[in-house]
Amino acid sequence: MISTRNLPYLAALAIFLLAYAACVLQFPNMLSTRVLGNLLTDNAFLGIAAVGMTFVILSGGIDLSIGSVIAFTSVFVAVMVGSAGVNPLIAFAAVLAISTSFGAVMGLMIRFLGIPPFVVTLAGMFLARGAAYLISTQSVPISHPVIDAIQGFYFRFPGGGRLTAMAMLMLLVFVVGASVAGRTRFGANVYAVGGNPQSAELMGVPVGRTTVGIYALSGFLSGLSGIAYTLYTSSGYSLATVGVELDAIAAVVIGGTLLTGGAGLVAGTFVGVLIQGLIQTYIVFDGTLSSWWTKIVIGLLLFTFIVLQRGIVWYSDRRLAEGRLKEA
Amino acid sequence: MNKALAALTVAFSACLASGVSAQSLTVGFSQIGSESGWRAAETTVTKQEAEKRGIDLKFADAQQKQENQIKAIRGFIAQGVDAILVAPVVATGWEAVLKEAKEEEIPVILLDRQIEAPEDLYLTAVTSDQVHEGKVAGEWLVKDVGDKECNVVELQGTTGSSPAINRKKGFEEAIAGHDNIKITRSQTGDFTRTKGKEVMESFIKAEGGEQDICAVYAHNDDMAVGAIQAIKEAGLKPGSEIKIVSIDAVPDIFKAMADGEANATVELTPNMAGPAFDALEAYLNDKKEPPKWIQTESKLYTAADDPMKVYESKKDLGY
Description:
The structure holds two protein chains of two kinds. By secondary structure, chain A is mainly alpha-helical.
């Protein structure tokens, strides 16, 4: 069961549990349903976007447009609902259609024009951010019975914690994402494209369709993440969520997905998101540390995990070579 | 054995008792970031004010991001703090998290900026009155020039920003009815030193020097410092030939005042936390509801207020 490929994921899980235990030792209050509920709710939008990013990175690509698409979504929904008086559910459907086709177009350019994902999604990042500014440069408040109802909906844990609608949405996205990656043909194709696109093509994997599908999925989940963010702040603001794509990449890599693609787990990304949330929670509980420590710790974790992954790749390559030597 | 148990019980209950009787408050403070010198000074002063009162302050810097502020507020609630201070980065999107705080009966006080939310979600807001700041500056000038003719040039803040609009309005209110004082030129200097200097240079060229410019009104001290340089480079004497009045009271303007190159400044105090803590203690101890808006004092400083001493007291606050 424990293969070397899963080692980074298990390491991340162990780090999370150990770190959480250490936090609880120092602040017993941190072992409460409230903190757990907060971890899920506060990181819901990041988690949803990070699932999309997991697929992109598994395929060996990158999507830098996520943060901007989230901001665009929130401004778009806020203006539609807040100023134009559209029903939120219609606005959600419209914005998901926009963000999904936005992702699909980026996928098409990556596949059929042969432009690196980094460049295409960088352009997408500027485009989406610019579009958000175009709609409104001010923070637009939303107030609508449907939005209030979704916001006010939660299950109360014993101890005062809340499982909010946003947290449930994130958990659902993770479960669906994990089964798509692990149990469907599309998921298998994503791993194949990320492992080696040439051999995938030779094996008959529809690389073009898969690539477009991956970026469309990432666009869809960015839109969904934007909806979660809109619910989270009940407003839209074009300056919001700058750099969320980088947090998502960090969550994916800390969760054990290989940055070069082909190996990793959606469940690992969940752990990666929780680790980031835990660091922030610890800093708030401590109350004297500079919040920039979040970045420093995440930077150190990233270095550690990249080195760990490199080591594992090197180790399994050597074992493969040894095996071949024995055969010869 | 029994004795040991008894001793333990006593020690334990003593522990509990001391935890209750020590009236020290724990207050969480969610700050926007440290984007300007004033903001950094506000953070420093808040920490000082908390220490003075024996308040345990939990500080969280949001790095200009609302999501970080919401996370921090939720974290404070989970921790069970006694109160929360927030300097909100934007005006919208606070209702859900403030409702959570209200359900836990944790009072929230807004610092420095107002928000768009029902008033019952926060205890009070401590901010300055920007119109009043402009008014204080204008009233000083009215008193200082008396009946003499005085042409004023105005260095506005960033176009469309609320301090620029309000500080202009307040100044105009103060000089209304004093026909000897006229604003002859008014342009934006974007709140910066360089722009302030550039705009002042063009004013001097256009107006032909001290005969036609009697005073400069700058919406912040940084632009005033730029204007002082421009005036000096034109061979004129700032502070005497051309009077300088501005707003904010940052340390550098006191240096200029000590050198006789600036005349007056109106303080935008970085001490928003002091009045906030006072209101909070009154609320928690005596159940006294504060008003929904606590206006900070807009104090006028002139050369008569020992500018060097003020400079010394302000220079280490992080401006």
